[in-house]
Design a protein that fits this description.
171 residues; two-stranded parallel ribbon; 2 strands
Length: 171
């Protein structure tokens, strides 16, 4: 399990590097056909692109019905893969700015116990929670409010406290 977690994280870091280098926000259009992609809900720029393509462009012909026939945007299980820890493009910079030390130099503490590992994990999860709130939830809510729509839906595995804890990798 440990080796898989490291390999999966490294794979995500490589994909993130390619996406930044080639200025690609959606790996589904960057990767070869059939490999899919994912939405980086922690990245503000990626969310701006997502809102434009998935909300503005896709539903523009129904805009006259917003707040009337169409009263809500439903999001079904926004989540990230539990196979690896998310590592958005600006994470290292934001982590150091927020907590005053390098995540990159201490990244092993996300996976192995050692001095300061619990604090690093807490800082990492706190920052990821804040990024998800700012980049995803507040942006979708703001878009909905601006268009006279309610924002509704549910999260992945939210139905029981135990599944929420497991999903958040908190144990």
């Amino acid at each position: 399990g440990f080796i898989f977690a490291i390999v999966a994280t490294l794979g995500d870091l490589v994909e993130s590097r390619f996406k930044r280098e080639f200025d690609v926000k959606d790996s589904g259009t960057f990767m070869p056909a059939g490999l899919g992609g994912f939405l980086d809900m922690f990245d503000s720029d990626a969310m701006d692109h997502y809102l434009k393509v998935s909300y503005e462009d896709m539903w523009s012909e129904f805009e006259d019905e917003y707040g009337k026939t169409i009263i809500s945007v439903w999001v079904d299980e926004p989540s990230y893969s539990w196979l690896y820890l998310p590592y958005p493009p600006k994470l290292e910079e934001l982590f150091e700015k927020t907590f005053g030390y390098s995540l990159e130099e201490n990244i092993w503490k996300l996976y192995l116990d050692g001095e300061g590992a619990e604090t690093l994990r807490y800082h990492y999860r706190t920052l990821m929670r804040d990024l998800l709130e700012e980049s995803y939830f507040k942006k979708v809510k703001s878009w909905c409010n601006a268009h006279g729509l309610l924002f509704s839906g549910h999260l992945m595995l939210e139905d029981r406290l135990l599944t929420q804890i497991l999903r958040a990798q908190a144990c």
